[in-house]
Amino acid sequence: MADNTRSDADHEAVNSDTFNDNAAYKVAYGITWLGGNVHESITKAAAEQAGMQYTDKLETGIRWNDAPSDNPEKLKYTGLNPLGGDINKPGTMTYRSHKGDLQTLHSMTPVYDTGKVPTNGEVRDNTIAQQVEFFEQARKSGNELYLGKILHTVQDAHVLSHVQRDASGKVIGFQNYNEQDHSAHSQDEMRQIKTVTEVVGIQRQVPQDWQEVPGAFGAVKASADIMRIYQDPNKTSQDLADYLRDKVYPFANEQIKDLPAGGSDPKYQKRIAENAETPMGETNPASQLTSFGQMGASQAAALKIAEHIPEQYHARLQELVNQRIIEHNLTVGLLEKTYTRESPTLPA
Fold it and tell me: What CA–CA distance (Å, rounded) separates 264 from 258?
């Protein structure tokens, strides 16, 4: 088992001056963590295969792509808050990563202010160049945080809502998050709730194992291979670039690289909800609450969230509790276990 004791530098990376250590916000808006710590689980499995220690710096790195800040070594979880967070503010790192010119951090099509639409070949080449830069930073500084950023991008490349692939697994297109229903986008990259039947015949809902997430095993193999390249002193950033081009982003045919990137598989496309003015997938607190409820959070945790969201959404939150969508299988104690490392001042 890896030693996960935090150094002072790691502690600072999490508890930066931009970090709001309010657990309710992270529960309500940091859905990734309740969605199963999939990146973390994949990276731990890959580290074991590659004979590499899973460190706190590596963990911070694999989270940075989702919660980036202007400081390349610090996280900013509050940027994910849809009610005033950076994710909806053009020009911020969170916006650029999820919706702008840095979607390459997730193996997706960047959106440029100039309106330029890149080709699939340009997206692949820019994504690889970005990862090569991180690799060289990791090697030069010895900071595995930058390796973690590479692993996040490569793991995302195995998600069907990020990269479209043919039956053989070869790339046929990079998708654009802005053209997708954000809820549908998440379905194939997070642990979903499934119903299991116990020996006595009682059914209950539990999260999937992380191995059940589509593409997880391919992501583990690629991550382990990259860790081996990183650890081998005879390997260079060119070896990484060759591996990414040939193994992670091989095109199904030569014509695809010259086609415009972007768009979305129909499964993930935005659509208009009935009796609603907001396109489905656009961030709104009500849909966030629904997603949260489906993950099986406790009523006590729901009440914590109610203290930090507009009053008009309290009824919807209570409705979820009443429908038993929010169950008690994830207790406040588990929330504390999940978030203590990021939030030493978890509210009582």
Answer: 17
With vertex at residue 185, the alpha carbon angle to CA 24 and CA 214, rounded to the nearest 5 degrees, is 100
The answer to whether the beta carbons of residues 163 and 175 sit under 8 Å apart is: yes
DSSP for residue 346:
-
Q: Is the pLDDT of residue 236 over 80?
A: yes
Contact present, 324 and 204 (Cβ < 8 Å): no
The pLDDT > 90 percentage for the chain reads 48
Evaluate whether 68 touches 58 at the Cβ level (below 8 Å): no
Non-local (6+) Cβ contacts of 27 within 8 A are: 34, 292, 297, 301, 304, 305, 335, 339
The pLDDT assigned to 82 comes to: 75
> What SS3 class is residue 121?
helix
Closest residue by Cα to residue 57 from 9, 97, 105, 18: 9
User: What is the distance, to the nearest Å, from the Cα of residue 252 to the centroid of all Cα atoms in its chain?
Assistant: 26
165-205 confidence digits (pLDDT tens):
999 999 999 999 999 887 777 766 565 555 667 777 777 66
